[in-house]
């Protein structure tokens, strides 16, 4: 019996080709005994023996009824812990079981990896989030060297092909697209199963983020909702009534169509051809008057237009990428694309991907204009471009019925508008086996309610309407939360799609679209490439966007389409061969599980569809706000005043204040409560056991009924009174099972508590403080909790650190370390305070060495490697790869750049605010936090002023409690006049007793903490002067 064996495309066979070929032949022949195949306990994976030390890791795959073996990777030297698919799991070879036949493999792998398509001629497969087999056309494109333009319809696999193409590029590579969701999704797909490629440095940026890498604007980006509110105020002074149409004209024509200046003049706008605007020449004067008001509104209300900003930034762009990959290029304007290409070191080192049939924003994109932008501007007029476009003609998503309907719509578009651009007009072939249902129904009240009853509880059915303003009427009949306008629907897919009045709402426009088109035009297997018949039709161009919107709506359906129209007699339906009009639907009644709805809410939140996600949680899952108060830095003062009010005794407020102060380390407040005889004197810096018990009681052991009930009631991101989410508590406990469940339910990994702690940072603090937690839990929970990136603002530029970068891990580690020192710092001598925030490469190496190898490989823990990262990222280092993360305070002493701002919930927050140093000082934290805050604030002010750091004697005065630090902060270049050694010694002697007394009190509180013993007074003073002299 033979079996197909497929190899992963990027399988590393170096030095083992013969052994691999031999083992593959044995597997293909079903000779599993000779290959010494064994099942790996606890995993749905198998291994075959290559030689004494090396193994072949494979899995079972299934295409239809056919079983195939999928070779994933080579395990060298028995190093299972370094496998990207086992990811640090402890593998005990004594628990392997022998496999002799394919039947045994199928029995022991009941959940094989599924393939939607299998190329019968290709021995290779690709692995992103799922197994992919490329057809011959896709394989040929994969081997084509840049420049290349990949064109494909929805469901053609163009994005996955583009990402696989990305793996072959070397050097510094940029992936960008307009959508932030698509950018994030592409990044997650690319690095799925822990993919790594040492020969490239890939940066994933949305277009907005790319702008911010040049300079973070001080204003907000204008969005359609903002524009719509402004437009409503203009209606009394304008005859224009459609805000969406005007917004698209501004974006696609007035500001986005040119690459030489910020926007068209009134005269240039009037001179545009009839196919270069969606407004008639008679309307353009009024359009431009509103545009001028729009420009004034931007300045007055603090917004920016992305096209105008791109034009302002374009001369400040430095070429820094060896290759650029642009996805969904049809959504970008000429201005935006021109700025993107300025980042290339070599102008034609690009991979572009898109589908002009999915243009629902009128930016007048065309492939021919794109070629002209590339070649005639770069090579001169008359230059002949080499053929770099590749068109994907197979569809792997939609059913045969959906694909056939979409093709007929494209034939109508081709017959009406004509085209000489083959890249913009092509038909596709469905590879699916499902026929799918296509129904045209009268939009009568009874029919609408019947479909609503059958689909309202299904997470696989969505209702689409043409415009946002059409949603209100649709909600009268459809109760599903999955209601989208066509603008919102881009990028989505559902098994069933219901279209409501797409044609009826624009009857006149579709009359113009179908004018002169006959059934003969539709009954063709290929398109006609010629210009449209009516070149003088002044309004013809705008109709393309109506037909494109309908095309996008149809192709959101994986299997079935239900078209509801009040006007079912329109000629378009006859041309689409939808001649049977129904009053009843064949749609089945479906009801999705609670888990399905949770996953759908999570997916929509990730895509920015917050309205629909919130509706799912509210209407389907029944979540609501918590009943208890949640205390934050903003309302803490009110709680404090209520709890400490001597006139009105409030035991509940006192208890809440105590728990808050105890957990977050506000020890002065605890002392105030002790004086009021509410609590006993605290003898430890750690949170009290009773406070920890009250926070975690619902989480001990397996998730109890209490926490499950709260999750069902309040959702996965509810806050407890201390402003913590369930994911933060699960991270603190290291509960892997609960963490997985919470993330699957949509828990947000980027939320922060009152000390700026994300769930990952909570786990980091536990790992750095607890060896058992670090050794047995942290390696597994880290990849679950780690956000995919950190967004920083340094010198007014965006720095986006991917989770795979060493700088990301160092930053997360140091932030956790600082959080520990903010609370548990044990002494107040100058060297110790500096060691809280300023560390040597040796100390940082020791800190990074604590991390498990699954998080940080051994080679990245070496001191030379860490020293190189520190040196490369010093704020004054002149290097294009310098991210300016570290400040070298003196030789061999580093701290994080205090000028770093972090992106938290779309706001920029300074490192001080993230760690809440001011809150710790103002509300009764340790005295040393005030000292640290003063030091780092001074350093930030000095750096921002472009001046050198003050002399060390000034810092010592600050650190030893000298209140004159304020003068240094205000004028860092002019420190106070130096004292003589005698004066300094006398001052320090006066202050020493107070410092030692405070230190002794702290030491009494530090049961269980490691700390040095007290030094004699003379040695303490000598330490200060030795440090100054260095």
Can you give a write-up of this model?
It is a single chain. With 1030 residues, the chain is of the alpha/beta class. 42% of the residues lie in helices and 14% in strands. Strands 1, 2, 3, 4, 5, 6, 7, 8 and 9 form a nine-stranded mixed beta sheet that branches. Strands 12-11-15-16-10-17 form a six-stranded parallel beta sheet. The radius of gyration is 32 Å and the shape is globular. The termini are far apart.
Quick structural overview:
The chain has 1030 residues and is of the alpha/beta class. The chain is built from 44 helices and 33 strands. The radius of gyration is 32 Å and the shape is globular.
What descriptive keywords fit this protein?
about 1050 residues, alpha/beta, 9-stranded mixed sheet, 6-stranded parallel sheet, 44 helices, globular
Quaternary state of this entry equals single chain
Q: What integer is the average pLDDT?
A: 82
Strand content: 5-15%
User: What structural class do you assign from the helix and strand content?
Assistant: alpha/beta
Our Rg estimate from Cα atoms comes to: 32 Å
Global geometry: globular
Number of H/I helices: 44
Q: What fraction, in percent, of the residue positions are helical?
A: 40-55%
Largest sheet: number of strands, sense, barrel closure: 9 strands, mixed
Total number of strands: 33
Distance between the termini: 77 Å
Detail the topology: elements first, then pairings.
Elements: E1 4-8, H1 17-28, E2 38-39, E3 46-49, E4 55-63, E5 66-75, E6 97-98, H2 102-108, E7 113-114, E8 124-127, E9 131-132, H3 136-143, E10 148-152, H4 158-167, E11 171-177, H5 180-190, E12 200-206, H6 207-214, E13 220-221, H7 224-232, H8 243-254, H9 266-270, H10 284-301, E14 303-304, H11 306-313, E15 323-326, H12 334-341, E16 350-354, H13 367-379, E17 389-392, E18 394-395, H14 400-417, E19 418-419, E20 429-430, E21 438-442, H15 445-455, E22 461-465, H16 471-474, E23 483-485, H17 486-489, E24 494-500, H18 507-514, H19 519-522, E25 530-531, H20 543-554, E26 557-565, H21 571-575, E27 581-582, H22 594-606, H23 610-620, H24 636-643, H25 651-664, H26 667-675, H27 689-696, H28 705-714, H29 726-733, H30 736-744, H31 759-769, H32 771-776, H33 778-785, E28 789-794, E29 797-802, H34 806-824, H35 830-837, H36 841-848, H37 863-872, E30 886-890, E31 893-896, E32 901-904, E33 907-910, H38 911-915, H39 917-922, H40 927-944, H41 952-959, H42 965-970, H43 981-1004, H44 1017-1029
Parallel strand pairs: 1-5, 1-8, 4-7, 10-16, 10-17, 11-12, 11-15, 13-14, 15-16, 18-20, 21-26, 21-27, 22-23, 22-24, 24-26
Antiparallel strand pairs: 2-3, 2-6, 3-4, 4-5, 8-9, 19-25, 28-29, 28-32, 30-31, 32-33
């Amino acid at each position: 019996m033979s079996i197909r064996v497929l190899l992963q495309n990027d399988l590393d066979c170096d030095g083992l080709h013969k052994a691999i070929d031999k083992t593959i032949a044995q597997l293909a022949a079903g000779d599993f005994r000779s290959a010494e195949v064994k099942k790996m306990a606890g995993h749905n994976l198998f291994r075959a023996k290559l030689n004494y030390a090396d193994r072949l890791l494979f899995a079972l795959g299934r295409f239809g009824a056919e079983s195939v073996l999928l070779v994933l990777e080579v395990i060298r030297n028995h190093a299972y812990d370094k496998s990207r698919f086992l990811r640090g799991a402890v593998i005990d070879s004594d628990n392997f079981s022998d496999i002799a036949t394919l039947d045994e493999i199928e029995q022991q792998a009941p959940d094989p990896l599924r393939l939607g398509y299998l190329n019968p001629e290709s021995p290779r497969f690709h692995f992103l989030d799922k197994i992919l087999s490329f057809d011959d056309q896709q394989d040929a494109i994969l081997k084509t060297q840049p420049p290349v333009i990949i064109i494909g319809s929805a469901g053609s696999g163009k994005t996955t092909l583009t990402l696989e193409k990305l793996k072959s590029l070397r050097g510094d590579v940029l992936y960008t697209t307009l959508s932030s969701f698509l950018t994030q999704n592409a990044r997650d797909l690319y690095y799925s199963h822990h993919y790594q490629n040492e020969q490239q440095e890939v940066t994933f940026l949305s277009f907005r983020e790319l702008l911010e890498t040049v300079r973070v604007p001080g204003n907000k980006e204008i969005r359609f909702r903002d524009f719509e509110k402004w437009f409503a105020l203009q209606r009394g002074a304008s005859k224009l009534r459609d805000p969406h149409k005007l917004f698209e004209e501004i974006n696609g024509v007035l500001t986005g169509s040119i690459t030489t200046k910020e926007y068209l003049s009134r005269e240039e706008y009037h001179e545009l051809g009839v196919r270069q605007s969606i407004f008639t020449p008679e309307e353009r004067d009024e359009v431009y008057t509103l545009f001028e008001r729009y420009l004034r509104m931007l300045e007055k209300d603090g917004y920016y237009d992305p096209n105008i900003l791109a034009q302002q930034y374009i001369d400040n762009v430095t070429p820094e990428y060896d290759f650029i990959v642009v996805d969904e290029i049809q959504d970008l304007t000429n201005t935006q694309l021109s700025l993107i290409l300025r980042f290339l070191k070599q102008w034609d080192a690009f991979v572009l991907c898109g589908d002009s049939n999915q243009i629902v924003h009128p930016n007048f994109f065309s492939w021919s204009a794109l070629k002209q932008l590339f070649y005639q501007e770069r090579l001169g007029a008359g230059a002949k471009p080499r053929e770099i476009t590749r068109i994907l003609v197979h569809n792997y998503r939609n059913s045969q019925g959906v694909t056939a309907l979409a093709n007929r719509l494209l034939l109508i578009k081709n017959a009406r508008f004509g085209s000489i651009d083959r890249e913009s007009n092509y038909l596709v072939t469905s590879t699916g086996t499902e026929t799918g249902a296509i129904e045209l129904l009268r939009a009568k009240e009874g029919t609408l309610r019947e479909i609503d009853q059958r689909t309202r509880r299904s997470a696989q059915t969505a209702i689409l309407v043409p415009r946002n303003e059409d949603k209100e009427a649709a909600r009268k009949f459809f109760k599903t939360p999955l209601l989208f306008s066509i603008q919102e629907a881009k990028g989505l897919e559902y098994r069933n799609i219901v279209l409501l009045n797409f044609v009826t709402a624009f009857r006149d426009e579709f009359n113009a679209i179908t004018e002169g088109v006959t059934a003969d035009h539709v009954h063709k297997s290929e398109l006609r490439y010629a210009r449209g018949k009516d070149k003088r039709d002044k309004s013809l161009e705008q109709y393309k966007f109506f037909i494109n919107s309908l095309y996008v709506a149809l192709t959101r359906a994986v299997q079935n389409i239900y078209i509801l129209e009040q006007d079912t007699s329109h000629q378009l339906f006859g041309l689409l061969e939808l001649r049977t009009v129904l009053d009843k639907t064949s749609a089945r009644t479906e009801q999705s599980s609670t888990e399905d709805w949770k996953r759908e809410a999570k997916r929509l939140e990730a895509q920015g569809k917050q309205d629909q996600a919130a509706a799912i949680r509210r209407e389907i899952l029944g979540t609501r706000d918590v009943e208890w108060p949640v205390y934050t830095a903003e309302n803490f003062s009110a709680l404090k005043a209520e709890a400490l009010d001597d006139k009105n005794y409030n035991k509940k407020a006192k208890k809440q204040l105590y728990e808050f102060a105890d957990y977050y380390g506000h020890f002065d407040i605890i002392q105030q409560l002790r004086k009021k005889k509410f609590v006993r004197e605290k003898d430890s810096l750690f949170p009290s056991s009773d406070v920890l018990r009250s926070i975690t009681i619902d989480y001990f052991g397996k998730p109890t009924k209490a926490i499950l009930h709260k999750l069902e009631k309040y959702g996965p991101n509810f806050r407890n009174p201390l402003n913590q989410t369930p994911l933060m508590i699960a991270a603190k406990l290291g509960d892997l099972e609960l963490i997985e469940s919470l993330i699957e339910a949509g828990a947000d990994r980027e939320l922060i508590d009152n000390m700026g702690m994300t769930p990952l940072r909570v786990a980091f603090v536990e790992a750095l403080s607890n060896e058992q937690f670090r050794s047995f839990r942290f390696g597994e929970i880290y990849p679950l909790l780690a956000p995919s990136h950190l967004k920083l603002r340094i010198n007014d530029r965006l720095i986006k650190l991917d989770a795979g970068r060493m700088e990301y891990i160092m930053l997360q580690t140091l932030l956790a370390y600082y959080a520990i020192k903010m609370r548990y710092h044990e002494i107040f001598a100058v060297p110790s305070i500096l060691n809280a925030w300023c560390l040597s490469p040796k100390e940082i190496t020791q800190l990074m060495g604590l991390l498990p190898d699954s998080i940080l490989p051994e080679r990245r823990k070496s001191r030379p490697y860490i020293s190189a990262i520190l040196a490369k990222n010093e704020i004054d280092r002149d290097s294009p790869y310098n991210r300016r993360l570290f400040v070298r305070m003196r030789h061999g002493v580093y701290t994080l750049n205090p000028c770093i701002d972090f992106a938290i919930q779309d706001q920029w927050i300074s490192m001080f605010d993230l760690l809440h140093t001011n809150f710790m000082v103002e509300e009764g934290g340790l005295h040393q936090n005030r000292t640290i805050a003063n030091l780092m604030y001074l350093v930030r002010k000095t750096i921002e002023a472009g001046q050198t750091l003050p002399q060390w004697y000034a810092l010592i005065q600050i650190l030893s409690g000298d209140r004159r630090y304020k003068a240094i902060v205000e004028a860092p270049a002019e420190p106070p006049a130096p004292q003589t050694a005698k004066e300094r010694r006398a001052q320090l002697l006066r202050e020493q007793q107070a410092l030692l007394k405070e230190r002794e009190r702290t030491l009494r509180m530090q049961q269980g903490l490691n700390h040095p013993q007290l030094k004699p007074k003379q040695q303490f003073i000598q330490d200060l002067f030795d440090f100054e002299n260095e």
